[in-house]
Design goal:
The protein is of the alpha/beta class and about 350 residues long. About 50% of the residues lie in helices and about 15% in strands. The N and C termini lie far apart (about 75 Å).
Length: about 350
Amino acid sequence: MVAVAQQPLRLRLHGAWAAKDIYHEYALDFAKKINDMAGNRLRVEVLPAGAVVKPQDLLDAVHRGTIDGCHAVSGLWHARNHAFSLFGSAPALGVDANVFLAWMRYGGGMDLYQNLVHRQLNLNVVPFFTGPLPAQPLGWFSKTIRSSDDLKGLRIQAAGIVAELVRELGASPVAVADDEVPAAMKRGDIDVAAFDNPSTGRVYGMPDVAKIGMLRSYHQTAEVFEVLINRARFNALPAEVQAMVRHAADAASADMSWKVMQRYPEDMAAMREMKGAQFQRTPAGVLRAQLRAWEIVVNRAGNSNPFFEKVWKSQLAWARRTSAWLRENNPDAAMAQEFWFGSMRRKKT
């Protein structure tokens, strides 16, 4: 008898990220975890942004089966239903993205999402949420932002529900693909680049076009990635392989959180030392203005979209409970940081 090796099943995930972006690296890490577990039963390949369709068209492409799946953020589907943006990054509620993923798993978030994609929109997709991202910086500027008045009239890279927030702050949102941002800033088409993290900012050479990175912002404090797989393709996988995909999403969340701690500080330091980038904290007045703007945005969306309101109330209830526990339970990190690394410690040494 001649033994014939069984060919593995294959899934092609289409990313929303350029090949050089660290977000694409996160997608590759997710795929590698599946491949390592599945061995010869399943092989997952990841394509970069634009390989088959544009990022904003990924949802429809997965639904139709044009591609097997995608690695993106649900805010990209904001035009389909504004509630999608709530699942990609809830408005600032005082909790981080890991707490947001806990809401998805244990606070009813996934049930609400399944309701949206399956019952209301009848989409042929299986969703997974993974990868808790740190709060995004306010953006890259050519000058220091000292008050919310300094934002008025600026053209800021933004899309989805964040674009509505930008408008409430008196600025103009402009949708610009990440790989086009440096050129757009040089031409004067936009004033502010809102890259999500220092690693992406570094790879796109942001300090060459805007020296000031304003850190700390409430515009996206709890963003997470979404993986969508065509439902027919997913259901055709053996049950144990389906479980590997689910567990890989959880494992990728943990590993990504750890990688962030290594890469983001490293790339921020490199931009300071080699490119003269200046990183400054966003003033408290700007943060308060963002919170007031968020209240207007979510109230307006809730008034016109009952499902948006339902999701928002669920997130509010989860954040109220979990943030209260975190404040009561966790000691002040700033005190410990000041003790070990602050000005008094430097004077002693």
